[in-house]
Amino acid sequence: MPQEDLHELGSMIFNAISENCVIEKSDWAIDKINKIMNQFKSTQAIYTDFQIVIPWLDQFNAFTAPGKYIFISRKLFELCRTDEILAFLIAHEMAHHELGHFSVFPSWFRNISSFNLQLLLMAPYRAFESRIFGPENECDADRRAIDICIKAGFDPALCLELFNVLEKHALDVGDLDMVYGPSESDDELLGNTTWETKFKIWLFQRKRGYLPIRDRKKMLEVHIQELN
Fold first, then answer.
1. What's the pTM value of the predicted model, to 2 decimals?
2. 134 in a domain, yes or no?
3. Domain range for residue 208?
4. What is the mean pLDDT of residues 74-97?
């Protein structure tokens, strides 16, 4: 999809969300976002292009849209108690843009009506987005996000506390699979994993769009060790 169409689509998504829910505009929230974004901008000017939006959505998630918008639901934002947690969350979404993941965004999406777009956003859009990107791109965005955070001076170990937040929420709502995957101790990240286990986790990834939370964290711990 051409860049001008991607930017137009991003504006459509922003308008649909703005028309259907309250956008957080409190000074404390804006100041927190600006502090983190200024730290990112000091390392790379391209990060100036992004606009962080905090909608009061029912969903507990963060997602990005074509163009410049990154959305963090108010429910998730309020649990990002440290700058590092919020920085990693934002960096993950910026990484999707930096890695070119929107090149696979379907061209038919730009033809969707405003009414149908609002229905999709209530559905929620993040589930659609994760299916578009796929688990491989999500893992790439996780790794790139850690790199972005380290370059900006954030402590990567503290960034990984985001997964503790996500895990607690998943357990609170009874979503054990999101935390552990098909099995709590299947060691799917090890090189000697059986083909049965690899197949189980492959199916899980295609269904959820992500690795299980604990595996995402483990993958990044290994990535950080390799950087040192």
1. 0.82
2. yes
3. 3-168+202-227
4. 95
